[in-house]
Every structure is written in structure tokens, then in C-alpha cells.
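thought: fold this chain, then report.
action: predict
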Amino acid sequence: MRQTSEAPFLGRHEELARMDTWLDRAADGEPRIVVIDGTAGIGKTSLIRRFLAGKARDCRVLTASGEELEQDLAYGLITQLRSHLPAAAGAALPETVQGAPADTAAQDPISVGAVFLDALGRFQDRKPVVLVIDDIHWADTPSLHALTFVLRRLRVDRVLTVLATRDSSDPRLPQGLHRLIQDDTTLRLTLEGLGVPELMALNAALGPASLPRRTMVRLRDHTLGNPLHVKALLQQFPADALGGRAVLPAPRRYERIIAERLAACDSGTRRLVQAASVLGMSSPLHLAAEVGAVAEPLLALTRANAGELLEDDPSGTPPQVAFPHPLLRAAVYRGLEPAERSHLHRVAAALTVDPWIALQHRVHAAAGPDGRLAEDLAEFAAQQSARGAWSAAASASVAAARLAAEPGRQARWLLQGVEYLLLAGDVSQAAELEQTVRGPAPDAERHYVLGHLALTTGRLGEARRELAACWDTCDATTGPETLRKAAEQMAWLCLIQGNAPRIIRWAERGLALPPGERSSFLRDSLAIGLAISGDYEQGMRSLAHLPDTGPRDTPQQLDGLLARGMLRLWNGQLHEARRDLKEAFDAHRRGGLPYAALVALGFLTDAAYRAGQWDEAIAYGTHAVSLAEDTDQISILAVVHAVTAYPLAGRGDFRAAEAHAKSAAEHARVLSDVNDSAFAATAHALIHAARGEHEEVIEQLSPFLSPEIVHRYGIEEPGLVAWRPLLCEALTRTGRTAEAQLVLAPYEQRAAERNRPLEQVAAARCRGLLEETRGHAEAAGQAFQDGLRHCAQGDGCWEEALLHLAYGTFLRRSGRRRSAAAELEHAYRTFRRLRATPYLQRCDRELKACGHATARPGSTCHPALTPQELTVARLAVQGLTNQQIARELVLSVKTIEYHLSNSYSKLGITSRMGLVDKLARDA
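observation:
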């Protein structure tokens, strides 16, 4: 039998070199990700350790590991990472992230990720940071979403993230994380078995017997070079058993090797190691000693170290013990007798202060169905649900279902767990439970949950059937809360499809029931349904309960705020719309409805675009796309991609705009929704319009004239999506004036009937262009003048600039150059401020044709600054600190410092006072 001393690190030189290169890039401010995958025992952890001991030895290191037994512990992985942060860097983290996951669970993954991002930004002030997460396939889902959020927002941070997993395509990983793993900037290393030279070196290191090369070739073929398996064979069998031509023996299970090593220890050491395995990969020494009833923990730890069973971290406060490898901890834990394992978990539960961790220990201690424990879990789930802590509520409710003795309660709690997962944005895990919750005789509650799941995953037809069945199968036992939530989802479904009468019908049915305790989308749906059916005033009256401003902490203060912002946007009240939508986004993100928060951010992007705040619009849109992708909110992705493309198209950033427009169209096709399709087609049309490609605009938008589109409420209501003005202009510019008239007339009529100032401006501009093309100069001039009068009634900026450009062009062609120049100058100033390059060039040509020079040395609005730099600069001018700016934009402090430094350099200034002066002069 060979010695069991730790074998040296062998091979993997190429992998180490590539990791070193990625670390160099990260150290230069290019954050990078390394993904290492391979089977258990292949050497992933050993490779990471050698990397940390080599090139990364002078870096700051944060480590964490997913644990199979703790996948239901919300934010357990984030808590591990937090434990490595010094007090100064972690000061901003809420108390729960510092070690009370039950409280942390009350926050959504975005909030937890934002706080961790802030701490990580301050942790890299002197040295690069290496973020290491082993066994990420076993990490808890909320932590995975929070981690994805963080990694997507590292811009210039000196951070290298190393992720180790058995399978990087594991479906448990969020889609956003899969996209990061597949990104071109990610280094993916798939570890294969060691070669014969490395195995011979391993044999020599284990000593004393030296095996010939032919034997090592046989071992390589037999084990596929898995170092853990080869080492086990070398340690377990003599040389003559491995040589010759006999069939090679199979290695004893790794668990047996660890069991023999553990059996050789004294009882105190054995109890310490066993207790530590119950507590996790790492735990406080004193707690492990209490759980294991170890009288002399330091002596036991010393002996466990000598036996390579535990490692100690004396720098921790209190001192921590940890397992060298997840497989070792798993072997110890699985080697426990069932009765002893249950006993240790019961002791741990009694010693644990945190209620959720205590419940987890009780779950692992249970020998079978346990009605009392299931009730306690269900009660905890209800408490977390009331606080909007959906992830914790889901974990507790699913656990309660597994332990319930009564089938009825088991089914009810499992259904609640799936709903909580959907509310938490954990769509993939909810989908995994779909077949489990389906039953032979579904009741109203099950129909509701299945309908909610189908709607969230984009299966609209199935969602309609299930949600309708919820109402059709309800009986005296069906609670009003179930019916109210089903009506809410049905109203949302009808909203997606643009069926205004059914939106109103389902919203009214839901509102007729007793109100629930959490925020609801019913008031929003009712107001939107009324507005898109043409009854804007009634829609606003339905929101009369909302205060103008103030806290948004209760459903009474929040429900309907999103709709009010949207209605004000469509009515051209851009300032009020932006305020409402920003408040709705912030409030729903704190504890309301995740999808409502994203809808608010999407339409806030549109409002900023229309108001001529394009840097803000691009920042909002990029943020909305990222959040929607990070949380798998499929139903809103088409809209947020489309509106993000709008300002990019206006600036001539066609590559970025086309990417967003293409994504919008793909998501719209998934949903088969005419409204989403209209948003996506409008994004494409804006790109073509900016390029002057009028035939392509017609190709994109003419399908929406089809009489086969049944529900036209959303696409025909002025102010929602501007496809008719774009199509009318394209038809006019290609000489198809009769068709243009047919497109324009109903739009003009509706804009006038609704008294929508900005839509009347757009209609007047299109009318002026059409009459000019027809040769009716007087009618054209009158139309442009009407448009200018409407400008005074709304908050318009972008549409107003387009009107001045069109009117100035008309005047110039009519020979009235002086008047034309005044209109064109107005448009030019707006286009220049917005950096709307395609339109600025057109305006420049028209001004030159009027005999006017267009050089404006003092009128630049910082064309050298990127949208992100300008957004950061403006917040700095408002007096926000770097840390406050980082929290507002959900970026790291390092990224904010980088943007400010770039801005100073480009503007030739050295301080914030210089920013104040520069931005004030060009305001």
C-alpha cells in the first residue's frame, strides 16, 4: 500500500499559461471569465489551487463553492463570497448578506447583486481580484442570478472570475450566465485525463515502487487519465496486481478511501470532521466542535489537518475549518450512518440562530414525511412571501411539499412554490417542476399556476386555456386570491395581444374580488385597456387613487403607477411620464412585480427618447435589456430591445441598433404577438429611415395594414408605436401619395380625437410632406404651421426637431431662404445636441443650400463623450459621489472612476468643477 501524502500538481501547463494570460488582461482593466469544466476528480480544483499559488498569489482572492446539500439556501454562495471581504469593503452590504440569508432573501437578486458589485468595486482598489467559484452547478439559484447580474456589469474592473463545473451547459444555470460562458471573451477550458508522462510522475511521487511505462499506459487507458482514480489504484493495489496482462481492478470508491482515513483518527477528530460535513464546506470551528461534542477542538483540528481531512483558516473571526475538496466533504457526509447524520443535523438546528438555516437542518434530519416540519416550512414561506422574498418563499414551499404527509397539502405547497419561483424570476427552475405539478384532475389553483408558467415562457395559447379553465373549474373551495391572480395574468395576456375589450373585462373581474396583500397589475391593466380602446380620460380616472408623489410602499400607493406613466407618455406629457415610470421601476424592483419593473424601464427608455434625452434613453434601454435577460423575462424582451434601438438609429449607430432590432424581431416571433412585432418593425424602420432607405421602410411596415390583424387596438392607438407616420413618410417620398393618404387619414383623425399634441405634430409633418409632394404648397405650409402650434402644447423635442427640418426644407424649396434658415437652425441645434448624425447631415445640406455656414464652435454638446460618460458626468455635476453614481447606474465604482477620468481627459479639465462649467455652458 502506497503512502497517502498529497501528490504534486502535474501537467496542465497549457491551461495554466492561458489562465495567466487572462489574469494579465484583467489586471489591465479588462474583466475576464475563465470556465473550467470536467468530470469529478479530473483536477479542476487542483488546477485552480496551483493558479492561485502561482500567477495569482499577489491578487485579492474571493472563493466560494456550490454545495449539493445547500442548493435551497438562498444567497448561500453570495454569503460565502462576502465572508472574504474586509469590513471596509463590505460595509454597504446589508446585514443579511453578511450572514443571515433569511433577511437577504427578502431582496431580489438584482438588489443583492448591486450591493455586492459595489463592495467588489471597492475591494479592487490596490490589487486585482480573482473571484473563484467551484462547483457552480450546485450553487443556489438566487446567487446564480445575482452573480450573473454582477459579471455583466464589470466594465473596466480588475477582476478575473474563475468558474468550475462538471458541465458548463447545465440547464440549472441561468440563461444570462450561459450567454456569458459562451461569450468570445470567456476562456473555456475542458479538462481531459492526464497523459502517461504525468501519470509516471504521479507514481514516482507516491513511491516507493516504480512501475514501468507499459503499466502506466494500461492505467491511463483503464481510468482515462483521471488523476483521482489513478491515485486510488496506485494507493490500493501492489505493483504486481497492476502489472502483467490480468484485467486491472476497479478502484475502490473514493468514499471508502476517505472512510478508512477517517476510521484511523481518534474519536474527537472523527467527530469534528463529521460535524463539519453537516455544516457545509466551511464553518466556524467552535460551532463544529459544539455540534460534534468535541472537548478539545484545536487538538482535533491539528490531527484532521495531518490526515488531510480538514484545513484551518486562523485569520478568520472566529477561526474557520474547511474541507480541502468538495468530494471529500461529500464522502464524509455520505459515510455517516443515517441515524448519526440525522442527530448531527438536529443538534445543528438547535444551535443555529438563523431560522432558515435551522429549518434546512431539520429538513435534512427528517426520516420521512413530517407534518409539523412541513407546517413550519409553509409558515416560513408565507412570511417570506409577505415580504416579497420570493426565492426564500419558493425554497421553503417546495421543501414543505416534499415533507407533507397529506397529498392535498403537498400539492398546494408545490403549486405555491412554482408560483413563487415565477415571481422571483427563476423561470427555468419553475419550468423543471411543470410536469410534477400536473395532475390527472387539475383544480383551479393548478390551472392558474400552469397558466402563469405558460405565459411567462411565451406559450400564449396554452396560457389562455389554463387561465380560462381556472375560472371555469372554480368552486366553493377556490379562494378569491387564486381567481384574482388568474384574472391578472389573463389581463396581461390580453394586453400582450392588444385585445382591449378583454383586457378591460378581465381587469374588472379581478378588481371585483377582495384585494390581495401584494401588488397587482390589475389596476394598470384596466387603465391601459381603457386608454388603447380610445377612452383615455376614463383610464386616467381609474387611477385617481394614486398620489402625485410620495412613498410607494403599499399596493394602494403603487398599483396603477406604471399605467399612469404609460398613459402620460402616450399623451405627450413626457416630464410627468418619466417621473412616474422611474418611480414605478424603483418601487417594483424593491418588492413589487419583477415584470412590471421591466415594463416601466422599457417605457422609460421610450419616454427619454421622445424627450430628446438620448444618453439617458440608451443607458435605460441597455439596463432594461440586461435585467430582462438576466431574469429570463421573455415577454418584455421584444419591447425593450426595440426601444433601445430607437436612439441608436437616430444617432447613426446602425450596428448596435440593428442588433437590438434583430433581437426584438426574434422575441416577437416567439410570442406571435402583433404589438411586439410592431415595436420590432418600427425599430427596423427607424434604421432604414435614418439611412434614407424608404422602400425598406415600406417593406417593414406595410404588413400592419393587413385586415387579417384582428386586434388592432394597440397598434392603432396614437402614441403607442409610431409605425403609421414612418410608413406615410416613406410612401410619400417614393411618390405613392394615394397610399400615403390612406395610411395618414385614420392616424390624423385619432390624434385629433384624442387631442394628443405630439401625435398631431407628427401627423401635421406627414400632411405637409404629402401636400408638398402633391404640389399643394399652400396646404403644405398650413399643415407645417399647424404642427408648430401643436408643439407648444406638449413636451416634444425629437418630433419637434423633425418638423422644423421638414418645414425648413419646404421653405427653402419655395424660395424663402431666410425663413427656411430660421427653421433649419432650430432643428440643427437639437440634432447637434442629440448627436443625431444622419439628420444633422441632412440639415447641414439644407442650410448650405440656404447660403448659411453650419460651423458652431461654441455649440458642441461634448460629441467626444460616450453616452455612458455623459450620463456619469451629469450625475457628478448633480453632486453625487462616485459610490452614489455607481449605485444609481448599477455599475462598479471602478467603472465610474474610469468614465470620469476619460471625460476629464477628453474635455481638457481636471476636476468636477470643470465638469460643472462645461455642462452648464452647453445646457
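thought: worth noting. DSSP finds 51 helices and eight strands in the chain.
final: C-alpha cells above.
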